[in-house]
Structure formats: C-alpha cells, structure tokens
Amino acid sequence: MTRNAEYWRKQLNLIAHPEGGSYVSSLTASASIPTKNGERPLFTSIYFMLAEGEVSHFHQLQSDEIWYYHDGAPLVVHMISKDGEYSTVKLGVDMESGQQPQLVVPAGTIFGSSMAGEGGYSLVGCMVSPGFDFKDFKLFSEEELLNQFPEHAMIIEKMTP
C-alpha cells in the first residue's frame, strides 16, 4: 500500500486538531509534576500530520515542545520568539540541504507549521514537557498577532485562521 495522508489517517486513527491538521495522542508519562497551571504529566506525545493545503495555525504553549520528523514532505516550523524575532526550521532528513530531524520549540514561543513543497503530507511526532493540556494552549487570531507584530504581516496572514 502507498503511504499517503489517507494511509496515515487510518493507520494512526488521526482526528482533526483545532490548530489545523490532524493528530492522535500516542504516549503520556505515568509520572506527573506540579506546574503553575496545576498538575501535569511529565510528558505527553502525539502524532501530528498536515495534508496538502493544510497549515498548523499560530499558537502558543506553556511548555517546551520537541518535534520529530517521521515521513512525507519536509515540514517548516514558523516561530515568533518572545522578543518578536521570526525564524523557521525545516524538519526532514536531508541534512545537506539544511533540514533537521528534530527541533525544540521553547515554551512561550508563538509557532505554527506548513509543508515545504509537494508531497501530499508531512507526518511528525510532538512531545510536550511538562505534558500538554488544552488549558495551556492559545490559538491566535490574525488581528491579535498583527497588532503585536506588524513587521511579520505576510507570514501572520498565512498562518492564522
């Protein structure tokens, strides 16, 4: 069978994610730790996929998130740091062209992702530590980000709902 977006949706039982794309929870630590927002698992992990034409809209977490490339087209992670600097990292395995197979997005960074080029889908894994909770998740509107970072208007318009 050919691996494509539909293959991974079925194999992993992916469902729609509020930020865009699709996901499924894959691992949750049995240990937990206290955080300023309450008790959280030590880590949580998901499979996350973008299909052709989808983006992961700009959002923010209160924990670090580690991204791991798995399959398909390379994935560009777009980030706006706490001090307003915009940067990108391309996840993939073609290290000679500047791709990297994993990335840490620091807590508090505003970030989203899009596919790099053709390929039909990008499949990655994401581990959050301390563990993910939707109470710690903020999805941004275009207006909200344009007010804060007008210098990044072009990417904000692409990466917000």
TrEMBL record:
Protein name (Swiss-Prot/TrEMBL): Cupin domain-containing protein
Domain of life the protein comes from: Bacteria
Domain DUF985: 7-139
Cited CDD domains: cupin_YML079wp (cd06121)
Organism: Sporosarcina aquimarina
PANTHER family assigned: DUF985 DOMAIN-CONTAINING PROTEIN, RMLC-LIKE JELLY ROLL FOLD PROTEIN
Pfam families per record: Cupin_5
